[in-house]
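Dear Dr. L.,

I hope this message finds you well. Following up on our conversation about the binding site, I have prepared a predicted three-dimensional model of the protein together with flavin-adenine dinucleotide. For your records, I am including the exact sequence and ligand specification that went into the calculation, followed by the structure tokens. Please feel free to forward this to your student if that is useful.
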Amino acid sequence: MLLTRLVYTSTISSAFTSDDLEKILEISRKNNPKKGITGMLFFNQKYFLQCLEGSRQEVNATYHKLAKDARHTNIIILDYKEVDFREFSAWSMGYLPESSLTAPIILKYSGLNAFNPYEMSGESAHKMMLELHGNANQST
Ligand code: FAD
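The resulting structure of the complex is given below.
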């Protein structure tokens, strides 16, 4: 199996409603273990930043499926790599919202105080997710 990691960003669309985040996490945590997908989702009420890791085939299939989801738009791949090991192996889909705890980490990797993943390099986005990783709560 060729292990790969994909990091993308997207923006919520007008179809996104307040209970959609819960639904997205629920379906992700149901589907991803069956596909051997692990990862993390960061969300700040406007942008999504998600890392998917697993076999090349399943990461691509999951990405193509979620890219058709009308609840988000302007979907851009920031980073795609073959990797030697998983970094989020304990999480079928860990979740981290923006908070006072994440603010210093976001500032560290951004040119601006406000989080804008479209202005980040793939490497910065990946490193920021790794640093956020320590704060993520799988059950949230
Ligand atoms: P289905 O049986 O097709 O749907 C399950 C439930 O989700 C149903 O209640 C259905 O009404 C609802 N639903 C499905 N698609 C939509 C839609 N486009 N708009 C509104 N409601 C919908 N899926 C994963 O499997 N893994 C992921 O890591 C993942 N990450 C996501 C990240 C983001 C930012 C977004 C927006 C979506 C993500 N999804 C993820 C969800 C993905 O887009 C699909 O909705 C989901 O994979 C459909 O799964 P299914 O075919 O098993 O379920």
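In brief: Residues 20-35 form the longest helix (16 residues).

With kind regards,
A. P.
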